[in-house]
Structure formats: C-alpha cells, structure tokens
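=== Structure Prediction Worksheet ===
Name of assembly: unnamed complex
Input type: mixed (protein and possibly other molecules)
Chain count: four
Listed entries:
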Amino acid sequence: MLVIMRHGASQEQIENVINFIKKKGFDAHVSTGELHTVIGCVGGKVVDPRDIELLDGVKEVIKITSSYKLASRIFQPQDTVIEVNGIKFGGSHTGVIAGPCTIESYEEMDETAAKLKETGVKILRGGAFKPRTSPYAFQGMGEEGLKIIREVADKYGMAVTSEVMEISQIPMFLDYVDILQVGARNMQNFNLLKELGYVNKPVMVKRGLSATFEELLMAAEYVMSGGNREVILCERGIRTFERVTRNTLDLSAIPVIKKLSHLPIIIDPSHGTGLRDKVAPMSRAAVAAGCDGLIIEVHYDPDTALCDGAQSLYPEQFSDLYSDLKKIAPIVGKSIDTQEIKTV
Amino acid sequence: MLVIMRHGASQEQIENVINFIKKKGFDAHVSTGELHTVIGCVGGKVVDPRDIELLDGVKEVIKITSSYKLASRIFQPQDTVIEVNGIKFGGSHTGVIAGPCTIESYEEMDETAAKLKETGVKILRGGAFKPRTSPYAFQGMGEEGLKIIREVADKYGMAVTSEVMEISQIPMFLDYVDILQVGARNMQNFNLLKELGYVNKPVMVKRGLSATFEELLMAAEYVMSGGNREVILCERGIRTFERVTRNTLDLSAIPVIKKLSHLPIIIDPSHGTGLRDKVAPMSRAAVAAGCDGLIIEVHYDPDTALCDGAQSLYPEQFSDLYSDLKKIAPIVGKSIDTQEIKTV
Amino acid sequence: MLVIMRHGASQEQIENVINFIKKKGFDAHVSTGELHTVIGCVGGKVVDPRDIELLDGVKEVIKITSSYKLASRIFQPQDTVIEVNGIKFGGSHTGVIAGPCTIESYEEMDETAAKLKETGVKILRGGAFKPRTSPYAFQGMGEEGLKIIREVADKYGMAVTSEVMEISQIPMFLDYVDILQVGARNMQNFNLLKELGYVNKPVMVKRGLSATFEELLMAAEYVMSGGNREVILCERGIRTFERVTRNTLDLSAIPVIKKLSHLPIIIDPSHGTGLRDKVAPMSRAAVAAGCDGLIIEVHYDPDTALCDGAQSLYPEQFSDLYSDLKKIAPIVGKSIDTQEIKTV
Amino acid sequence: MLVIMRHGASQEQIENVINFIKKKGFDAHVSTGELHTVIGCVGGKVVDPRDIELLDGVKEVIKITSSYKLASRIFQPQDTVIEVNGIKFGGSHTGVIAGPCTIESYEEMDETAAKLKETGVKILRGGAFKPRTSPYAFQGMGEEGLKIIREVADKYGMAVTSEVMEISQIPMFLDYVDILQVGARNMQNFNLLKELGYVNKPVMVKRGLSATFEELLMAAEYVMSGGNREVILCERGIRTFERVTRNTLDLSAIPVIKKLSHLPIIIDPSHGTGLRDKVAPMSRAAVAAGCDGLIIEVHYDPDTALCDGAQSLYPEQFSDLYSDLKKIAPIVGKSIDTQEIKTV
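=== Predicted Assembly ===
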C-alpha cells in the first residue's frame, strides 16, 4: 500500500499518517518526490485504504497487492486445463457446452441431446432451478429435471452442467451433475461459493451483471480457498446503458482474464446478447479471440421453449455454427474437441 | 402486450403473427395505423416477447402489464407505514436507523448505542455476517454478534436490524432481530426472498448494484407473494462509470418509488457514497427529497472500526446531522420520530 | 508517477524499467518493499502510463499529480464566487436560474419572465440553438431567439444565460447573453472550450453524460487556461442502466466537487430527471446538499411548450418550490439571493 | 405512438387524453383490452411522449416510428458499399485502415507507411488535430501534419483518413484527406455533422462513449440528411463500470447495426481496449463477427510514439495479425481487400 501525500502537506501531517500506519501494524517507508511525499506501507495486516484517505494531507491511497492469489497467474503461470468427459477447457482447448435453457420434459431433453450428439457435443446444459425476476414465472422442474437431464446424458454418453442456487441443493446436485454452475445473480453469494470450495467437481462461475474482472476473480478465489481448484470462469454480458441487446457481451474478458489468471474463461453468447441472430456472430468472435470454451443455448424446437426460446439456436443453426468454429479455432492455436461420431 | 409490425409488413406476415399469438393462448386485436399495423394481445398466459420479436415483419413487442402487483401503488393507493419500536417508515414519517457497520464487541456496541440513544435513535444496526469481496477479510462475529446487539439494544430500549445472508440463518435471526435486511448482493437471491415472505417481521430489501427500480420492486414482490407485506425498500447506490464515489447514490429513487409503489423507501448514504464527508450532505438531501427513512453508519470511534470506518460518522457528527434533519423534514411535510429523552 | 513491479520481478526487468524512465526524462527513485519494488518517477515530462505498464515485470503504473491545476482547490483554497446581476454562485450563496427550455416567441418569454420576476428570479434561461438528437426536430430560433430573450430580460431587469454550440457563434452570444452555457454533448468540444477561455463573461460547463468528475474539471481547466476564471460547473445527470429516469442525477457531485475544486457547482434537476414531478424533490435535495445554484426549467404554459414541456414546472409550482428552497438553504449555511420585489 | 392507459383509468381521463392528442394534430384510435385501454395516435406531427405521460391515468407512451430513415435498412435493404482507393467497406468486403495515432513527423509517417504498404494496407490513418482531455497535452501538428500524411500516402499509393474537429477545418481537410472522421467526443456535435452532409467524401462517425446504437444511427442521419450518403459507422468502445480496459469494446455492434442499417460498421480495437496485447484478439473477433472493416493503430516504433503508443501495434505484430484476418474473413463470407504487392 502506498500513501500519496498532497502537494504541500505539512511535516506534522506526514508524521500523523506514519503514526496511524504503524498503529495498524505496518512499517512505513517514506520517500520524498519533487511534489509529493509517498509513504510505502509494508506488512501483512488488513486496513481499509479509505481510513487513511481521510487523514489530513493525504491525496490518495493505492493498494498494490491484488486480493486474489490462488486464481492469479503469478501464483500459477501455466494454464489450468479442466477436463470433463473428454472435453477440455483451457490451454490449447476450446470446449463446447450446449443444451436448452430449461429442462422442460424428457422428450425435450432427449430430442435436443440427440441432435447435439450428432453435431459432436459431449456436455449437456439445462436448468432445473431457474432464477426468475418474477415470482409468478416458471421456476423450473427441480430435482425431477435433474433426473431427466442425467438420464438423457447417460443415454448419449454426455456429461451434465446445471445451475445450483442454494447451499442446501449441493448434495442433490452432486448426484446428478458433472459441472456445478453459479449464476450471475449469485456471483457474490459468498456462502454458496465457500461451500462449493469443498466439492470435488468443477465449478463454473458466471460474471455478475455489474461485476468487475477483479470481483469475478475474487469469486473464484472463494471457491479455490476451500480447496477446489477446478474453476471455470464465464463471461455472459454486463449491464450497460445500451438496451437493444439484453446485456453487453464483453469479449475483452478473454485477453484480460488470460493475462491475470490461469483459469479457463468461457463465453455465454446466448445470455450475453439475448437474441438468436446475435448468437452465431458472437460465438465466432469469442473463438477468434481465443476463448477456452462456449456455453450455447440450443433447443430442438425453440418456438415451443418455455424459457429463453428467443435466444436458443435451432439444431441446424448450431450445427453450421459448430462447423465454422472448428475452422476458426486452429487459426488462433486452439482446437475444439468433439465427440467421435462412429459411422458404421 | 402489443406487437408493432414493421412499416410494409405483408398480410401474410401479419397473419403469421396472429396465428402464433393465438397458439400461445391470446386473443388478437388488430388495428391498422397509417404506417404500422398494431396487434393487441389479450389474455393471461405468459410469453417471452422476444419470441414474437423474431417473427418476420415484427418491429417491436411491448409488454404492458407490469410484473409486480402487490408492490404497486395501483394495487394499494395509500402509503404502507411500517412501525418498529415506535418508529415509523412511510406516510408522513421518516425513520432513522443508525449503528456501526459491523458488530465487533460488546464494548463497541454498548458505547455506540449509548451515544445514539442520547441523540434519539431507537433502531440499532450492525452486521453479524458480512458479505466480503475477499475470502480473506473479516467475515463477522456470527451468532455471537447477534447476541451482543440484542443485549445492547434491550439495555437501551432499542430495536435491531441486521443482514441475513442465507435461508438457513432465518430462524436464528428471528430470535434476535426486529428487521431482517437483504443486502444488495442478495437482492436477486430469489430463494432467500421467498422464504422471507413467510416471516412475520419487516424485511428491508436493498437495491442491487445494477438493479433497475422495476427489479427492486420485483424483489419486494417475491417477499410479498409469500404473505409478508412489511417490506422496506432501500436505495444504497448503484454502480456507474464514476469511481470517485464508491457508488452513485441515486436519490431519484425517492420520487420514482413513491410514484410506482406504496412501500416505504429509505436511503443508505454510508454505502451510497463510501466516504464520511459525503454522508451528511447526502442525508440532508435525502430528507429534503422526502425519503421515508435513513440508515446511517455511526461508530463510537471510527478510527478503530474493523470495517467501513471511513464511511462511519463520529457520534457528534451524527448528532449535528440529526438536528439538521429534524429541521428539514417538516419543510417537506414529514417528521422524524425520535426517542423521548427523559431528563430528570 | 509510481511504477509498481510485479512480485518476483527480476533485477533485469527492474533495470529495464529504470532505463526506460530515464530515457523519457525522469529521475527514478527505487524503494524495495516486502513483496514489490516501487519505482518513483520524478520530473516534468509527459508520458503515457500505459507505455510503462507494457514493460516486462510491471504490475501497475500510478499517476499522482492531477491534471487540473487552475480548477483545483489546492491551487486556490477559498471558494470562487461568481456574481451575475446581483445573484451570487458559490461561497454561502445559492443562485437560481429559471426559464423555458427553448425560446419560442416573444409572448412565451414575456409571460414566463413576468411570472419568474414575481417569484424573485433575476437570471433567465432559454435556448436559441438546440442540440437535438434528430435532424428533423425543431432546432431553435437562432439569433432571433437571442434578441427576444435579451429584450425580455431587459424589460424585467434580468440577466440571460443560453447555450452556445459553435465557436463561430461566440461573438453573437457576447452581444446578447451574460452567462455562456456549454451543453453536456459539447463538454469535450475542446476547441470551443479553449475559445471561451478568451471571453470575459462567465461560462457554465455542463457535465457530459458519461464524463467523470475529473473530466468535468479538465473541461473547466481548458476554459481557465485561456484566462477566463469565471467557470460555473453544472451537474445535469449521467447515463446509467436505469431508464425510468431520463438520466441519473448524481447529487454527490456537490460534496465531491466542493472538495476537489473552488469553482461553484450548480444542479439542473430538469434535465437530470426529465419529468416534472421529480424536479421539485430533487431541487430541494440539491439545496439541502449545499449546492451553489440551480437551473430550472419553467414555462408559463408547459402544455404548449415546443420542447421539454414535460420537465418544465408550471409557474405556481416553481413559486412554491422557491419558497421551500429559501427555507432549506439557511439550515446548511447558505442563502438564496432573490430579486427585491417592490411593492408600492 | 401508442398511449397505454392505467388499469382502472376513468372514462374522463381517457377522453382528456384523446382531446390532448387531437389538439396536437393526431387522429386517435381507441382499443379497449382486458386490462388496459390503448390509444393509437396517427399523424405526422412531433410531440414529446412525456407530455402525454404526465396526463392523469396514463401508464406509458410508446413511440413506434424510429427517428432515422435514411440510415435504416427498411429504407434501403441492400448493403451500402463504400469504396476508397480500391478498398471496400460493406457487403462482402472488410476494409482495413492502419497507421499511427498521431502524425508526429515526416519520418514517422514514412517509416510506418512503408511497413504498412508491405503488409498490404491501402488506407493510412493519423491524427493532425487531437482531442485531448488535458489542455496541457500535445494537441497535434495541425495542417502541417495533414500535409505530411498526404505526401506520404501519395508516395505509397495510399488514401488518407483523419479526424476533423471543427466546421471551420472542413475545407482544409477536403484538400488532404479521403475519409473525414468524426471522433467519439464529437458524435453529437450536430452542427459539424450537418456540415459534413454537404461534403462529397466519405465520413466515418465514431460511436460516442455513452451513445446508444440508435443515437449513432441518428448521428449518421444528420450527415445523410444533408445529401452525403457515404457514412461509415465505427464502434470504438463504450464507457462502463469496468476500468481494467480503457473502454468496453461492444462487438455486438456488428450484428446489431447490420440488422438495423445498411451502412458499413467497422471496429477500432485500439481505442476500444487501450492496450496493445488486447488489440490482436479483438481484431480477430471483430472479423469473425462479420465486421465491414477495422481501423488499427500501428506505429513503426511504438516505444517512441508521442501519443497512445501503448495501444499501437509493432509493424510485425500487425503483419501477423493481418495474415490471420485474411484467413478468418472467408469463413464468414467476407474478404479482406489488399494492396497488390508487385514482386519483380
């Protein structure tokens, strides 16, 4: 931490700050510049920088050490690669997850999964518990839904990812799913994150609507500090003044996170844009920017979908997109792992 | 819901939309304007407007009915007035809540409460479970803290408000506190909100960092739909591009919420600005704008506070502010209820 | 400027940074902390901090000296008080400016000004050149409008403020107006600001829709660096995700600007909210927060206004508000100067 | 325009609205739904929707016709393709513009252009007049700079683009440049836009930091309404709460603008991210999303650049990127036109 004194701060003010810092358990290193005196604070104690900012003569206080360690690339220079059902996220791998927004029925999951398997997908998504803005909207099928998605996934040799909303749901989820998702609205549900640190399955943490990259990495740190190092980060759009798109999908998340962290960063273009005709362009863009994975909403018949049909691709649209992505990935040194399709 | 067709939409496109709407269970009322055909949809079924927006020839789809009902002023024209320990929020009343950010020790709460009682405060705040961005920061005293705040409040004849973070904590909170707070980061923790609907104590819901007013009212609706009609809304600053202030305190929340809803709207200037020297001006502003209450951080010795000391007022600053607020309130037709101070 | 090296940066990386800095004309002062080496850069040359950020081993670069000087309270500790027609902005004074959005006709200005004079207003506002989002909307009366507002103001002993949009319009404005306004969309029209630095009349600079406080002060600096020290800053709402209000009026501008700068800060609640019924509460709030002035849209008959009638007050609403403001100001140590109304 | 009456609005309120609408010159078509009465307003007059919103019993007012016409794809279904020096923007073409942020000297432009020509670039960028936040920063070489860039471009058979900041500069720019740029801070400098409507060279309009897509299209409409139909739109990042990147580059601009408008949309990844190591990933992403062009900052020696060196690519980085882009474009049905490099 560095304390920058105002131009013209008195010797008394400087000493007052030094005393305050020492009282908080820091060592103080003073250096005097042309215009400003700068006090470096060394030591392990935690202090709120604003406490110092309020002292007389202080211009600014600057925190240096970032608050995340386990998630930081400084802590681990090489990429974390997470493998689920033969599909890898991170390093030179771009994993693809697909499926409907919500689990609606066995038939819906079965028909959708059949199409996805044909395309080469090996991880199936689908919500069983849905965070809905309105208490009067469909809230998901619950455990019944998890049973369905598991059964269908097993039938087609696929893995499962689904969103967990509550600590009390974790044991149930461990019975059915392979990747536990934390939704954007729960990204700072710190109790939930902490509990997921004790789970031995990968956790996907979605960036909150107004979360900074640092806060996203801190959310990952919560999970990792419990012992679980398999965290996948997911950019799914942030809230800005622009309302033509549902959210503003921030693809700079890809180079930014890759510089700051060793964790894989994947993109959700379906929630990120909210409209089907924007999903394919943004998926291609994400792969071209070097993302470690994609999670895309696909429904065997979007017109009848109970939820978010408007942002779900038709199976044939997805299949075309998938084929484009396989061409783009190698240009940026990545490959899209895919289900081997046995043709007799 | 209204479907606006594009200028020049064909008869076939219009009929296609009408068929789609009817299939979803609506009645369709067509009216043809100079430039646009407008299709009114009548009926109770839920449909995602984007599903219609994607049909050929559709320009825009407009939802008419707002999704909140119980929280709406249309549902209840007169103000909801919530009374806790003789202090009222709503109508012509402006209630004041004060106390430290965090419960740190018996001594801290006792010294702070003694000062607040002198000023006239009858509701004490203090966090026992703290949502902290970093897993390595102090996370609060837990139930031990709740015991302390209850004991101190009882000593001074005060009521208690504190933040509940988890469904599993609700029974514990009911033993100690009089108002259950839902923090900004939990404003869309829908399961928690739902459970609080079954509680028979007032619930204070804080606006999320990037929540619209409509979403805040929907959060209240979640609580109210469970049966609990005692909801206090709290504006505590939103996240914008400006970073000099910790958040941007949106005081227009006061006239906006008062027009849309009958629920009381209170202001948290401490989190809303993040710096002590901004708290007093913004508190005065909030009362002048007609708010139904304030929740202000005060610490008997902010320099030693474990958390958010920088935004906590000194007791004497708070006392001066309180006296200003009592002068401003009557100018806008409100009064600040206060503890009778018995002088022998 | 301070360069923070990454934890574990090599000696070679540190020396490379020092060489780079010296090449740019700085002196380098190295101090070695527990975790990080910090290099202080002293000297007058300008460098883009990002150039250093890109060097190997660099964690962060921190600029210390703020870019504005003339506008800074460090440069001038006492408040700048600007007086126009006997009305003062700054210090213990809160000046009020009122009038319609647009100059529409002599009759409109005359009827509005007559009402405002009765209330006690001495500075009249009105747009002659209107920045309109659409090229097809009414663009203002131009010089004809300026003639009208001047004539009406003279009739009632008032001063005039109006928005100048173009360098080429400045000489014309000097003939008619007493305060030259720079609109939010022009806040970074640096050429215009520079020219206004050579004018010897006060300039009011409105905060841009997405301008930080620092950028607003830099805009003032542009004017001041030309020699004109009479700059009034105006908060008129910023753009956020919330769309119920036209903009989010950021009243924390008042304590923030007053701390950073000696220049007066006034509030425009009409553009800041965009709806008449929000104007009075936010005006009261602004005065309670200690603003140095208000600029409010009032129209003698808002229902017939050509522009922004929806955010214009009726004269009787304004008169009631004005009387409230005169009661609130003294509570915060300010007074609202007013036109003496001679009663025979 | 549609006026939605509140649930339970009285017959008198409805009639009052109808009278108001008719007084404003509209025809009113009333249709009564289950819950709401909706009044359709037909006719050509302009009215501020908020005027009606303030009438008793009104819930909401919805504008239907979009304000831009010439820029709209409804007005012109086929893509506008703009050709400059053999390079096309729009349709199946992705044009590339490159060059330094600022024109610093003949040598700088000459060395940079020589490198760019080798890569295949045919349009050179470089600022002569720089909009700088600080009045104390380097403001550009002015006309001297324009002479240099023209001379260098002619030497290598290239075209020139540069930012015009002022109406009075237009004639000078017409002497030297082939595309006139309007910067983000000037996107709503309506007078400047209007004047550029009378120019017979292409105009590139950059999206403002907080401009919506609709406002960007309205800015284009200003130019087009003067007669100049050659407008290129440019996304260069918007301002959000995230500050790790200088701006948030909103690549969804590509599919969004392509749906709403026939005008070409190009991307500026240099300003959009502000850091060199983010430029290549975002450029690849933009081409994969189907953009009509890119404008990229390249400097022959970024370490010595006077301005924005940190976001400028080294020539060899640019050359590698360019070769990637040529591979990605065909996957999305586009091609990158390039300078024929004659090898003897």
